[in-house]
Amino acid sequence: MTASFSDEKKKILDGIASKAMEKAHAPGVSVALLKDGEIVYSQGYGARDLEKNLPANPDTLYGIGSCTKSFICLAVMKLVEEGKINVTDPIRDHLPLEVGYKDTPITVHNLMSHSSGFPSLGTAGILIQKMCLGEGWVPLTSQGDFYSYMNAAGDEVDGKPGEKYYYLNAGFTLLGLLIEKVSGLSLEDYLHSKILKPLGMTRTTLLRDKFESDGNRMTAYWRNKDGSMMPTVHPFHELVFAPGGILSSTVELTNYLKMYLNDGKYNGKQLIDADLLKEMTSPHTKRPDTVFGSNAYGYGWGVMEYLGHEQIVHTGSTGVSAAYQGYIPDLDIGVAFLSNTGYWSSAVPHAALALLMDNDPYDVVPYLKQWRHWEKLTGSYKAYRDTFKVDIVQRGGMLFGEVKNKWSETTIPLIPVSDDPEENAFWIYGGENGRMKIWFEIHDYETRVYYERWVLRKKN
Q1: Domain 7-360 is classified in which CATH homologous superfamily?
Q2: I want to staple 243 with a disulfide (CB 3.0 to 4.6 A). Which of 167, 172, 217, 405 is the partner?
Q3: pTM for this model (two decimals)
């Protein structure tokens, strides 16, 4: 039986995508949904280039950011399969990394699972700022700069390898350098020959020339503080290739997800041993739970609970592009999502997965339920004869009260008193009085907000 995605589901997903993009000022988005080995829905929204008003579509190339990390770990596991390295190898046996504990060295396993003991060292942010904005003066241009930066950071180590989870982009730069040293190939050539070409991902690349010669590519956009979008360039550099340098399309990413859903096979050929693939998608490092449940990290993949099922997932952002790729093995479903500005929301892929599971996203995704509820609360509230006015607005995933009068202008965050996405009571900071509670009442004809001595009303 051919897998399907109904017109009603398409309508719901399209509406959520439109609303999420409007909230985030996102120029363009592409998505592709996978079920039972087939793409059941693919769509582009908005513009891949604002100035030319070129539409985004499922074949548009975007930067996938940290979704690159699973490709890097897959390449490492290919080298393991070839007998060239082991995941237990100390990284200092292969590369000139001089920091860490002598008795418990940082291993390849620790780098792939973000358990090296190093907290973030900010390398990706430094490089993105340099290449996208032309700003920043930390010397981080050559491999020599990178090793000097890493080896000077010994005092930053905050635990022995394996003790703590710290997301470390620099660790994946090391893995990329390791792949090149052990294979004798450039990272692009190794990924192309061993992974991308066998998966039919012929347009996927790390390289500027190949990306810029493609007629269906994104224009990258930097989000300014005021929410406006500034066209810029994708950060191409060897030191960000492995942490987050791949560019691809949602359609080609579904080929990658199909291989995982088929235990390492693609078009009848075994790309990687199934046991090695299972090692990549098994939990190695515990992370804080999410609103959906348990959360861990494997090798280049998150291993997370989602609506009662295990999801293998990763997000990504280059500051000027964003990505989400994930799949649920026991349901044989997956989603690839890409955008041409820095990461702003998982609403579209979360909604897509919920719909593939035959759920209404607004019923099962807590923050979507909250979005819908907060829409009822936002607006302009007034006391008797406009003697006091408050605007309730959504911004950055929070509610705020904005008070403007001839005495002052104040913006106050509203903190829900519970985790209920349809909570009507909030805490605000009352200065000398400490925290104070405000609450809303929703009636057919009006919504009221109660604050200290005031009752303010908004017509519905």
Answers
A1: DD-peptidase/beta-lactamase superfamily (3.40.710.10)
A2: 172
A3: 0.94
